[in-house]
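Customer escalation, tier 2.

The customer says the design service returned an amino acid string that "doesn't look like it belongs to this structure." They asked us to rerun it and document both sides in this ticket. The original structure tokens are below, unchanged.
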């Protein structure tokens, strides 16, 4: 399950004022990180990075190996390497965008925002991070019961530091809150097609909570404090056979789709607009007693957060907390193997954890 990152932190930092930062920094703890080691994937020796997945992968893969691609350039100096504008994504990778958007025909949201009592229409542009993974399970698709993975217990095992609870469909934020109505599905209610609604919470790890404390000090006079956690709501479900069948166009593997599992994040407290984890099961082309599993993680970020000028970068205590650096795992504040590690490490570990779960059950 994706995704999900230190949203409260990066939003607040994007609004920071340099003069305030220099003053507040005097009162901060002296152990803020400078050169922490970069977070590493839990099982990096089992993951093979590739430029992209190809149909031929299915025949050559051995159980235990996971192919991973997120379209990032390893030597790139562009901090946004791996992100693509939502509209460009829809045009360049149409099948992928159709499958990984919250619902068919999804477009960037338009809504009304009230600032200082004045209501103004707003169009929100998004940037998307997409990771792909592929692995082989040494058993036929008929031996894999996807319903065993569509529950809270399974999610808890995928990443134990994220806490989950079941949520009634009538209680989801897009249904209850008129300001979030743009996140409603137009074709059906969330969790109204055999899925389960889930509310999740992740407490920031390592030194990131210190960054939140700094952000709260910078927001002098504000009654709204930045949270030291990320909360999100999602729908987890096994795809109906008719819906799953069309995903062969996405994987490009020439065998019938045997099943699909997806978790769609439709509401997040800050910065992330939507996310999706999708797993597609197909018989291996060379051996029907093996299953090829293709997985995807997509996270859509509000572009205005990334595009704000970061004047506070010249303040030493803040220069490693630039939003895009934290999100893409390039900050010395990134730590651990979950969300606080940054999006690429989190996506990699989520896919490998799913591969292990399928192999063991």
């Amino acid at each position: 399950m994706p995704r999900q990152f230190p949203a409260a932190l990066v939003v607040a930092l994007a609004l920071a004022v340099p003069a305030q930062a220099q003053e507040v920094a005097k009162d901060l703890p002296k152990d803020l990180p400078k050169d922490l080691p970069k977070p590493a994937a839990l099982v990096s020796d089992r993951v093979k990075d590739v430029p992209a997945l190809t149909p031929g992968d299915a025949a050559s893969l051995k159980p235990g190996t996971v192919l991973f691609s997120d379209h990032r350039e390893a030597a790139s100096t562009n901090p946004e390497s791996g992100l693509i504008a939502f509209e460009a994504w829809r045009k360049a990778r149409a099948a992928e965008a159709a499958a990984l958007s919250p619902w068919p025909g999804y477009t960037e949201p338009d809504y009304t925002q009230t600032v200082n009592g004045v209501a103004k229409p707003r169009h929100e542009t998004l940037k998307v991070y997409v990771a792909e993974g592929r692995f082989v399970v040494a058993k036929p698709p008929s031996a894999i019961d996807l319903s065993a993975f569509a529950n809270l217990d399974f999610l808890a095992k995928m990443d134990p530091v994220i806490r989950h609870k079941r949520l009634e469909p009538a209680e989801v934020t897009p249904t209850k809150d008129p300001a979030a109505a743009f996140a409603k599905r137009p074709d059906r209610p969330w969790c109204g097609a055999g899925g389960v609604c889930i509310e999740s919470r992740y407490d920031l790890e390592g030194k990131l909570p210190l960054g939140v404390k700094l952000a709260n000090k910078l927001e002098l006079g504000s009654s709204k404090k930045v949270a030291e956690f990320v909360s999100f709501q999602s729908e987890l479900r096994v795809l109906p056979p008719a819906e799953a069948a069309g995903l062969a166009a996405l994987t490009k593997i020439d065998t019938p789709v045997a099943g699909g599992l997806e978790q769609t994040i439709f509401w997040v407290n800050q910065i992330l607009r939507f996310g999706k984890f999708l797993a597609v099961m197909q018989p291996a082309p060379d051996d029907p007693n093996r299953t090829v599993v293709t997985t995807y993680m997509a996270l859509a970020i509000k572009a205005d957060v990334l595009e704000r000028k970061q004047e506070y970068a010249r303040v030493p205590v803040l220069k490693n907390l630039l939003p895009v650096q934290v999100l893409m795992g390039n900050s010395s504040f990134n730590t651990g193997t979950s969300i606080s590690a940054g999006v690429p490490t989190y996506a990699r570990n989520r896919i490998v954890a799913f591969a292990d779960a399928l192999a063991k059950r």
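Tier 2 assessment: The sequence is consistent with the input. Residues 1-25, 27-43 have pLDDT under 50 and may be disordered. The first strand starts at residue 47 and ends at 49. Sent an explanation to the customer and offered a walkthrough call.
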